[in-house]
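Person: I keep going back and forth on a fold encoding question. Show me how you would write down a chain together with its backbone fold. Please set it down just below, with no commentary around it:
Helper:
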Amino acid sequence: MTAEKEFIPGAYRQHILAGVIIAGPQTVGIDTHGGGPDAKGSHITITFGEQLMITLYDMAAASVYIKAWLANEDQWVFDGLPIEIHTAEGSIGPGLSVRAHGEDRRRTRYDSVSRTAIVRVGSLTWTVRDRLAADSMRDAWRHIAELGPVILGRQAPTPRRRPIPRRR
């Protein structure tokens, strides 16, 4: 299928690639909303520092992020990181909010040239520079792994919306 056939007139289309570089302990906040496994609208919102917020709406989405950080076969990636690196003050850039629904691609790898771990979920990529950052992020995702079944439970994955073409 060509791009011309996929184009929907009048619909705004975008694809954003975002990268987050982390070092040192990460400040993580976790907020839950909902009345339990069958409550409609239940979600978990995680804030990472001042600039990144991810809201998980179903277990499929939660599982993708959890596995990206905690899959047993990828834990060696974080072992190659230095314990701690000296960093200057971080740069303050734009804030990013991710609404995570359903399945997405994930990949975790070690970059031997930069000596960093690369964690990618969909089009969001973390570059992890030291073990302090990796450990605090993995601790947060372990907590989410425990909360997910309680808050999100058996909610069906939310299908991704496709824009409805306007009639002329």
